[in-house]
Every structure is written in C-alpha cells, then in structure tokens.
Specification:
There is one protein chain. With 145 residues, this protein is α/β, with parallel strands linked by helices. The protein has a single domain, classed as Immunoglobulin-like (Sandwich), CATH 2.60.40. Helix content is 20%, strand content 24%. The strands form two sheets. Strands 1, 2, 3, 5, 7 and 8 form a six-stranded mixed beta sheet that branches. Strands 4-6 form a two-stranded antiparallel ribbon. It is elongated and about 50 Å long. The N and C termini lie far apart (89 Å). Belongs to the Ole e I family. It holds the Pfam family Pollen_Ole_e_1. Keywords: Disulfide bond, Signal. InterPro entries: Allergen_Ole_e_I_CS, Pollen_Ole_e1_allergen.
Length: 145
C-alpha cells in the first residue's frame, strides 16, 4: 500500500514538473501566412487569371506566399498585414479593397496551430488582360456581347 502511494506522488510531481517546464519554455512564435497577387483582370478578387507575386519585400516566394514570424503575444492589440510596394511595375496599383488583412496574434484564441492565415492581398494590373471578359463570364460577372 505504501509503495502505491509513493508512485502516485511521483507521477503527480513529475506532471507538476513537466507543466512548470512548459511554462518556462517560451511558446513558439506565431506565424502569419498569406498570399500577395496581381489582379490581372482588375476584378477586385482572385480569378483563374490571377498571378501571384514573388519578391514582395523579400518575404513572398514564387507562389506569392509570405510567412512572417511574430514574437510575443499581442492579444490586446489590433494587428493587420498591409501592402506597401509592388515587385512588378505593371501591377503596382494597390487594390483599396484588398490592401490589408486583420490578423489575430495570440495563442489564446482556441487555435491549436501557431499559424494564422491572413486574407490574400492584391495589386491591380495597369491594363487588364485581353481575355478578361471571358474569364469574368465564368463568375457570371462579364457583360454579354
């Protein structure tokens, strides 16, 4: 009986030790992930003709995806990702409706992952592609000819 009691105390102490160890070890950074695109049809949203932009402030890859690591918890702050400058001269107009995306940067929101996904951000192409009318017809947004 005494041996059983010691085992329970040992397991409880081990659990308490591991729990305090997890508190001491800092939680992983929150990673904000999203995409930056060129709206080639000036539609105001992503289409099948959309291209994704590489090289935005050295944070986007060839698929237009960026990942930003944020230290510390920002539960009490309003945070957003915002476009600043395009990597393409012919697609540099900031789409006012897609120029920023709010992001929750806290571990205390019931999300198990440390990754937070932001809405895609878009620039507008100077001149829409010639086949944009057909492309927008797919979305029932084009005009009939």
């Amino acid at each position: 009986m005494a041996n059983h009691f010691h085992a329970i105390i040992f397991i409880s102490l081990l659990f308490a030790f591991l729990s305090s160890f997890n508190i001491v070890v800092s939680s992983p950074d929150i990673v904000i992930e999203g995409r930056v695109y060129c709206d080639t049809c000036r539609a105001g949203f992503e289409t099948t003709a959309t291209t994704y932009m590489e090289g935005i402030e050295a944070t986007t890859d060839s698929s237009g995806t960026y990942k930003l690591s944020v230290e510390h918890d920002h539960q009490e702050e309003s945070c957003a990702i915002q476009l600043a400058k395009s990597s393409q001269n012919d697609c540099s107009e900031i789409n006012d409706d897609r120029n920023s995306a709010p992001v929750v940067i806290t571990h205390n929101v019931g999300i198990a992952s440390n990754v937070r996904h932001a809405n895609s951000l878009g620039f507008l192409k100077d001149q829409p592609l010639s086949n944009c009318g057909q492309i927008l017809m797919q979305y029932a947004l084009g005009t009939e000819e």
